Amino acid sequence: MSVLILLILASLVVAVGFLVAFIWSVKSGQYEDDYTPSVRMLFDDKKSNQSKSEESTK
Amino acid sequence: MQVEKFSYDNNIVRMFGNATILWGSIGMLVGLLVAFQFIFPSLNFGIEYTSFGRVRPLHTNAVIFAFVGNGIFAGVYYSLQRLLKTRMYSDLLSKINFWGWQLIIVSAVITLPMGFTTSKEYAELEWPIDIAIAVIWVVFGWNLFATIIKRRERHLYVAIWFYIATFVTVAVLHIVNSFELPISFMKSYSWYAGVQDALVQWWYGHNAVAFFLTTPYLGLMYYFVPKAANRPVFSYRLSIIHFWALIFLYIWAGPHHLLYTALPDWAQSLGVVFSIMLIAPSWGGMINGLLTLRGAWDKVRDSAVLKFMVVAITAYGMATFEGPMLSLKNVSAIAHYTDWIVAHVHVGALGWNGFLTFGMLYFLWPRLFNTKLYSMKLANFHFWIGTLGILFYAIPLYWAGFTQSQMWNDFTNEGFLKYPNFLETVTNIIPMYTYRAVGGLLYYIGVLVMIFNLVKTAKTGTFTANEEAEAAPLKVLPPKYRDEHWHRWFERKPTMLLIGSLVVILIGGIVEMVPTFLVKSNVPTISSVKPYTPLELHGRDVYISEGCNNCHSQMIRPFRSETERYGEYSKAGEFVYDHPFLWGSKRTGPDLAREGSIKLRKPNSWHFKHLYDPRSVSPGSIMPAYPWLLFKDYDTTTTAAKIEAMITLGVPYDEDYPQKANEDVVAQANEIVADMKEVLEEDGFEVSPDKEIVALIAYLQRLGVDIEKGTMSSNDTNK
Predict the structure, then answer these.
(1) Is there a contact between A11 and B251 if contact means CB atoms under 8 Å apart?
(2) Is the bond preceding B580 in cis, omega lying within 30 degrees of 0?
(3) What is the per-residue pLDDT across B274-309, written as a single tens digit (0 to 9) for each?
(4) Chain A contact set for B75 (CB, 8 A)
(5) Which member of B169, B471, B523 has the closest CB to residue A14?
(6) Which of B29, B289, B336, B688 is the most exposed place for a label (fewest CB within 10 A)?
(7) Of B401, B397, B398, the residue nearest B433 (C-alpha)
(8) How far apart are the C-alpha atoms of B650 and B638, rounded to whole Å?
(9) Cα–Cα–Cα angle for B246, B171, B99, rounded to 5 degrees
């Protein structure tokens, strides 16, 4: 069953990769705000929203 | 702050959307054909290219990689640009991604019916196509990451995390599972053998479901459901936890596909534990999706998009509850090898993937074409007939699966199998197969109605290939995030600290276990198990090419009902020369692991007639007829290459055997023909030793033979 080592290593590489990504995301403040992103994605920069988005970027 | 003007690439979204529709309608039509072949076995019209064993992989590949695959790309290319406020990194990469993927699908549509297959489920495509998939997938990843780098929105919305996980994990899975040794342009042998091959395959197979059918679609759910409802997701925090928990758990659950097989017990149990844990993130995600509609359920009444999405999320919830339940060993004992599993995957496929795709298409089309949906009535009709189709599909198959399983296990009061003839357990559930086919038909009618509706919508509107947009460029981060030690952040957030440490413990525990895996003795070798003869090897390749493993397992579980029916349960050591393994996952027909044993052995002439016309010797059978095996020659020019490949993979043939192997092929073929000639000539058959049917018979008669020699010799030594 030596293939288990390969599978576990492959899975671990993936898992460790995700762990690094997780640490990065936390470190870089991705989750500092856990509400606004859910609302922000609702606004598209179509013509109707343009005035709003300009307001917010002033 | 300067606002930058740019445009979104809608053209690529439309291309992938059209491809989803096209391949979806083809893949499901093939599925319908397959479903009707259960009731009318002659529906392959007597030709090899449409026989069940070849068309079933075509169906699964088409709906997974062509329908859902293009659906993923359409949704990702649409949402990624908008979430990151930027155009895709490169239009050229997008186009290569699109045309490369379509080329792969076309090559699958050509090669699978021709019988070029590796036999590994959902990874049937042969090695040149495997390489093409890897290349195109990398192109997709390149485009994905480069777009993320040039984004105008610092925060990566949760959907993007799901897309990233999809790309990374599918790449690793595909590469590890596709280690194969080519012997010719379209034929290769899996690098792994027997139990090990099975474990790799189901590690892949399970994660293909996880990271191709689930994570990308969860990303799409987190984008399109809030968009369609115009409500933020119920809890963004929950969505983050959902993501990280799901990806850390999913990858370890594969062994639950191999419960009660020859896989070591501890590996089975590990798979079960992780599978059970998966309920938590899965249901967290489902609840998060459904509760997004809190206070807005009235919108579901008016929106076909939301109707589809609500049923999709509900189906996701049902399938991810059922999955862990099926992973329990005692439930698996009932459900494995039966139609229950087929029902389970179709709740996921038709409900979750299908309905979310339809919802997404109904959402996208009016937006891409700047118009209203052509007909709400037709969309609602599609929804209801589709939902009805799912019910008509799933419920009869649950019934069929449970019934058949009970019949397999039923004993008389005297202790004999109540239904010793496997065929009885098949004919009994054929009415259920009929309902299933009707369910599939209803679902398909819905799809056709959708196509009409979308085409009409496109015609009434005008398409904008490049949608104008504007956004401010990224600001440089305040020093707080650049200098502070990341762990400070953890310490300030106790919940995150807890989760973080759990993850670390999980990984630490697994690292600790690795040394115990290094003990090699996990596959006991059985001295009487010998490599296949070259003719049997040819026969095995015919078995693979015809896709026999789609309906016949070769893995007897250690239950009395199975050992009574098929003989001694399967041992890991019996499969050490099996490149690839052929355990199968479904018993539409009986298990064949001991087909050549004293208990089950049938005359060569029986096999010949049975393959030529199954119903001539076994009335009521739903196995397709294989008349072409009588006329097609097996290719003796490849014998040496096959044996050499096996030697490379560690199968103990003599070094000079590849050159001599064809002598043995001729001798064994002549022996088989001589044995059955007389009987067959009476029935007007002509038999020639160089035909595929002879090789296949040689292989079938070998199954389960070796281990009997072993018991005989050990008995001898006991005396």
Answers:
(1) yes
(2) yes
(3) 999 999 999 999 999 999 999 889 999 989 999 999
(4) none
(5) B169
(6) B688
(7) B397
(8) 19
(9) 120
Q: Which of B226, B504, B523 lies nearest to residue A38, judging by beta carbons?
A: B226
Q: Report in angstroms the alpha-carbon separations of B531 from B184, B661, B689.
A: 21, 13, 22
- Across the interface, whether the CB atoms of A37 and B158 are under 8 A apart is answered yes
Say if B155 is an interface residue toward chain A (CB within 8 Å).
yes
B199-237 per-position pLDDT tens digit: 889 989 998 889 999 999 999 999 999 999 999 999 999
CA distance B463 to chain A (A): 16
Across the interface, whether the CB atoms of A5 and B518 are under 8 A apart is answered yes
- State the burial class of residue B360 (Cβ atoms within 10 Å of its Cβ: 0-12, 13-18, 19+): buried
Q: Which residue of A10, A35, A57 is in closest CB contact with B176?
A: A10
| Environment class of B493 (CB within 10 Å of its CB; exposed 0-12, middle 13-18, buried 19+) | middle
Tokens of B21: 């529709």
Half-sphere exposure of residue B430: CA atoms within 13 angstroms, side-chain side: 16
Section B667-687 average pLDDT: 92
Q: Does B336 touch chain A (CB under 8 A)?
A: no
> Contact, B323 vs B277, CB < 8 A?
no
A27 close contact with B: CB closer than 8 A? yes
Largest CA distance in chain A: 63
Question: Nearest C-alpha of chain B: how many angstroms from A18?
Answer: 8
- d(C-alpha B228, C-alpha B300), whole Å: 10
B69 in Cβ contact with B101 (< 8 Å)? yes
Contacts of B473 (CB under 8 A, 6+ apart): B1, B2, B4, B152
Instruction: Tell me how many degrees the CA angle B207-B212-B213 measures, rounded to the nearest 5.
Output: 100
Residue B505: its H or E element: helix B494-517
User: What is the Cα gyration radius of chain A?
Assistant: 20
Contact: A18, B165; criterion CB under 8 Å: yes
- Rounded to the nearest angstrom, the minimum Cα separation between B297 and chain A is 18
Identify whether the C-beta of residue B255 lies closer than 8 Å to the C-beta of residue B202. yes
Predicted local confidence at residue B168, as pLDDT: 87
- Chain B residues in contact with A58 (beta carbon < 8 A): 1
Pairwise CB contact (< 8 Å): B157 & A4: no
* Distance between CA atoms of residues B590 and B555, nearest Å: 11
Task: State pTM to two decimals.
Answer: 0.89
| Partners of B187 in the β-ladder | B184
CA distance B172 to B200: 12
Query: How many CA within 13 A on the CB side of residue B648?
Result: 14
Q: How many angstroms away from the CA of A31 is the closest CA of chain B?
A: 8
Q: How far is A50 from chain B (nearest CA, A)?
A: 8
Mean pLDDT of B509-533: 62
Element (H, E) at B31: helix B11-37
Q: Which residues of B touch A27 (CB under 8 A)?
A: 481, 486, 489
Checking if the pLDDT of B486 tops 80, the result is no
Of B203, B236, B500, the CB nearest to A35: B236
